[in-house]
Amino acid sequence: MRLRTLVLREIFERKSQLLTSFLAILLGITVIVSIKNITYYSEKAVAREMDSLGANVLVLPKSATLQDYYAADLQSQTMPEEYVTTLAMSDLAGLDNISPKLSVPIELQGKTFTLTGILPKSEFQAKAAWGGAGIFSRPIGCGASVGMMGSTDKKTLARKRVIETLEDNEVLVGADVASKLGLKDGGKLNVLGKTFSISAVLPQTGTVDDSRVFAHLHVVQDLSKRGPVINAIEVIGCCMEISKGLVEKINHLLPDAKVVTIAQITTTQQNVNRMMSNLSLMFLVIIIFVGGASIANYMYANVFERRREIGTLMALGANSGLVLRIFLLKALILGVAGGIGGYVLGTILAMVLGPKLAGVVVLPMPFLALLAVGISVALALAASYFPARRAARLDPCATFQEV
Amino acid sequence: MLRMENVSKTYRHRGKLVTALDGATLHIPTGDFVSVVGPSGSGKSTLLLMLGGMLSPSQGRVLLGAKSVYDLSPNERAEMRRRKVGFVFQTFNLVPYLSAMENVKVPLFLAKMDEKAQTERATALLDRMGLGDRLDHKPGELSVGQQQRVALARMLANDPDVILADEPTGNLDPETSQQIIGFLEEFNGEGKTIVMVTHDPRAAKRAKRTLRLQSGTITCQGATDESLYQADSAVA
User: Fold this and answer.
1) I want to staple A339 with a disulfide (CB 3.0 to 4.6 A). Which of A42, A226, A373, B172 is the partner?
2) ipTM score here?
3) Cβ contact B54–A10 (<8 Å)
């Protein structure tokens, strides 16, 4: 005979009475786990989608107007290039990538195109390393640019709008430019009196980028004689950080610039996150009230029903601490079983409903098992404490009375 | 062994003061076998509860050995009960979801005995009670006589010095009652002190002496063969 045996025997003997409380806690945990699971994978999917859109925050000169997101830099207003350094050296969280641009109109073989100067990412990293601080000196958490780090394929510029390296004598050519001028990878192109090697012809994007020629920012500044200025800075920001006010923080950092974001996308993401978070919280509150009340009610009834048994144990020499432990161990077992059962059911539910409701593939999340068991055990113990204390303080004389 | 010094117990019921026990003084030496008789509500069970450290008196002292029982903390009283007192109940008070063997193991578990020793001791005690073939039966699967014998085995588990029995034959047929009283005599013969509350004159007569309670007062203390139902004798 052990304490565990005593408790388990009682549970299995009166399992039908325990069923309602167990179901209340099981269903509550199931719902919380499934919502959390689907939300997590849904957020990941949205983050991937944001990544596929490229930059989601634009820094423009104060007086600039934004007509076309992809042509934001095609205007005459400029701002100092040092804004880029200010951003790169800042401690703002959630900046995944920065891409400054200076665009000037050019004529090639009698046709008008745009020469866009861009700064490869390697230069930011070098700057950050010199400074020993800044956004590239710390881990980037949101993963919006996953898969881009270290990529040497220059064609990623078409989709990511950021490039790792770009030499002074290299250009990247948009799909329309290439087809109209008959250009190919490895060919030569003369722009504003300087001969460049074509390091890549970019794939068709359906945007104004197809009519651009991309060169190193500083080369474009020199060739256009515009000096150290830029037209726009494209920023890839983490969705979560944008939600938390990244735009306002950049605005604060660069008060003389205009900062805009793809508001619709971030707002949608923000709303979905908020809804899921609220839903999860609502179920947590429901489970605390319904599950907690159910467990407390069951435990009080159980103490009342077993008062003679408790009195007998006390007559045999059990102290109040042991009686308290008997009921709290029972609550612990109930909590662990409800937590594990709720995790398993919730995960299965999320895996089945995730693709149907949110259009995402959902996988099990072991971390949620800890959360489920933690909530369930804490709830069961808290709800059982007062009934258990009542049992421990029971008058052992009940043993001698007809009950 | 057991001593009560001017013990009273009063409580309030619906605003009225009720006296359950009134100035009880008695001495029960080691190896005694005392039956306590009296009408319902006369304070018999109250007296037994107080002797067992389960109900504190409103005034007076209860001593077990040299120790004043109610000067101990509740946990020390629980420990005292575990080590020195064995209870036998009218309705047996077996834990219904435990087998006969497990019921007997409960006090051994409370004494922190290891599992193997628990099994050996419980088996020996149930064998002694003639229940060696009913070890795995639950109380509901046993007759009332067998249940009381399991309760006796459980009571003996920690080898108590004092046995407090509350109507141990109250729910039993005459033949089984005789068997249970026989067991109590056997335990008394082994040196255990027994106090037995009973309504059954035949059971009371088997004790060495009898206490009679009337309205919370001990009215007669004497040898059992003396007139059992004679009241109003002075308390020694």
Assistant:
1) A373
2) 0.88
3) no
